[in-house]
Design a protein that fits this description.
Layout lengths: L6 H12 L28 H23 L2
Length: about 70
């Protein structure tokens, strides 16, 4: 539902990051129900953006914890 970042752009980003995963861990996750900037939305304003935000923060924290503990 992102009106600013196309699926093709996200795929190009994922492809480029995949080339570097041996050096630097990376992850690209698309939240199809989230709109652009969904982390700034409230539950009342946009329930689907709010849920995407909750999920993405948990995934982000897990990624940081795993990546930072690797060093």
């Amino acid at each position: 539902k992102d009106h600013l970042t196309s699926h093709a752009s996200m795929q190009r980003l994922r492809n480029e990051l995949d080339k570097r995963t041996a050096v630097t861990p990376a992850s690209v996750i698309v939240y199809p129900q989230g709109t652009h900037g969904f982390l700034g939305k409230t539950k009342e304003a946009s329930p689907s953006d709010y849920e995407s935000g909750l999920t993405s923060w948990a995934v982000t924290n897990a990624f940081f914890n795993a990546s930072l503990h690797a060093y």
